[in-house]
Amino acid sequence: MSIVNKAKQAYKKLFPAPILKDFPAENLPWIDKKNPDVDGFVKQFPKAAQLPYDLAEKLRFWNQNGYVILEQIISDELIDAYLADVQELIEKHKEYDINIRIDRPEYRKHPVMKIRDVPREIIEGQYIKIMEFHNASVAGKKLMLHKAIVSFLEAIFNQKVVAMQSLTFLYGSQQETHQDFPYVVPQVPSHLAAAWIALEDVKPGSGELHYYVGSHKVKKFDWGNGIFFNGESTKNPTDFGKYLSAECERMGLERRTLLIKKGDVLIWHAALAHGGEPILDPELTRKSYVCHYSSELGYYRHRHDLVNEPVRHSMNGADVFADPTLTSYENSFKRGEKVN
Q1: Domain extent listing, the chain
Q2: For the sheet containing 209-212, what is the strand order?
Q3: Are residues 301 and 8 in contact, defined by beta-carbon separation less than 8 angstroms?
Q4: What are the tens digits of pLDDT across the range 80-116?
Q5: For site-directed labelling of 313, which of 12, 212, 218, 284 has its Cα 20 to 30 A away?
Q6: In the predicted model, is pLDDT for residue 7 greater than 50?
Q7: H or E element that contains 242
Q8: How close are the terminal C-alpha atoms of the chain, in Å?
Q9: 124: closest CA among 100, 106, 97, 95?
Q10: Which GO MF terms does the UniProt record name (predicted)?
Q11: How far apart are alpha carbons 126 and 131 in whole angstroms?
Q12: What is residue 18's DSSP assignment?
């Protein structure tokens, strides 16, 4: 039995999961509760005056719409350092155990593979996600734990932020409409958010991200065994996507596509309905970096070892855990040490 499966079994014994129909009210983030006192919160939030955006305005927008866009907060130098790391990984892929996910028909039985075992032409093609490269890349950690992102997340959770995972895309995902929380489940399910970092300008026809404004308030989908997708679910992701699209249209929610610039960041709620448009021009890349976050209450153990205290890397008041299954690669791509 793998270390991952052993850890999952140990965690289930310690914390058996209830069948939930919604996020538990007792640990819902303050901003998601009825009539949150935004002005009162901002007055007592120590970082508010230091931010390059109006925190009160962003929090009200988040509460109403389920996302915010932070414009031009990441330097080209840091993004370019990360892209150089990604390119080095691709060129030397046979040397690394780092995982990638391949959502192509011929890989349906084994969608997650070690990058060393995948041909380069597949790695550089569509339907690919490079998984958890932040563990190896210093620049990836700096992007993930950028102070402007961390500060906003710290405000919505009102707790220390812990980064959970990352995905790197060269092309648009072309995913069905979905919400993140049924698939990415921290120890407190409502303590989840994501950041979509544009590594280049997004062009029309590149398989843009789409999202439904205000869809974080849609009634949770029942997979047949609660709100999370797992081995006991009787519904599938296609059922999920159809439900979300139908509910968003029934509620009259606006469907937008994301056309942002290199250095811009979209941060979205765990329950925002979103997906990837079809790629209309196969010559267009859509390089992006997606990170998921929780709080110190919501994610206090690495999912690959749910028993032992994690090794923490801290930056801007937030943590990301070292991957206990890939310790030899931690921070092995060092060019990000020279940039901010």
Answers
A1: 3-338
A2: 255-257, 209-212, 274-276
A3: no
A4: 999 999 999 999 999 999 999 999 999 999 999 999 9
A5: 12
A6: no
A7: helix 237-250
A8: 41
A9: 100
A10: dioxygenase activity
A11: 15
A12: P
Distances from the Cα of 208 to the Cαs of 18, 53, 122, 173, 279, in angstroms? 36, 25, 21, 8, 8
Residue 142, both tokens: 């700096």
Q: Which residues contact 96 (CB under 8 A, 6 or more apart)?
A: 89, 114, 115, 116, 136, 329
**What pLDDT shows up at residue 153?**
98
Structure tokens at 238: 């296609």
| Tokens 């398989």 -> residue | 207
Residues 276-303 pLDDT 10s: 999 999 999 999 999 999 999 999 999 8
Predicted TM-score (pTM) of the model is 0.92
Neighbours of 218 (CB within 10 A): 20
Res 133: pLDDT: 97
Q: Write down the pLDDT at residue 14.
A: 43
CA angle 89, 94, 95 (to 5 degrees): 75
